[in-house]
Amino acid sequence: MKxxxxxxxxxxxxxxxxxxxxxxxxxxxxxxxxxxIQRFEFVFELSWKLMREYLKYTGLEINNPRGVIKYAYQxxxxxxxxxxxxxxxxxxxxxxxxxxxxAWEIYQNIKFEYVExxxxxxxxxxxxxxxxx
Length: 133
Hints:
Low-confidence stretches: none
CATH topology: Four Helix Bundle (Hemerythrin (Met), subunit A)
Radius of gyration: 15 Å
Largest sheet: none
Distance between the termini: 10 Å
Number of domains: 1
Mean pLDDT: 95
Order of helices and strands: HHHHH
Structural class: mainly alpha
Shape: globular
Number of helices: 5
């Protein structure tokens, strides 16, 4: 199980780097913004599944993003539970509804808020892997 956590962490770390590359390019064309949003969706999926794997390791079996976020917050894996729930909501909106105004708002959230949450999670898992596993 420890190996799965490390593997998921490495996938998350790599995907986050690609997301950061995506948001570093000025979104002067819709395709650039669309690509960054798609990378965000991928990083979000990897992030909650990484947390799920860790919670499973600690004895909690949760299989949906909202529950994982809730228990990750309660167990000190993440600090900003409400922001993570907002991120989940935005991720869900990108999957089911699309318009330019909403895409721009979500892109701004990704660039100025969500990447920082992902970076905090990255640091937390570097700590977990170094000291707890």
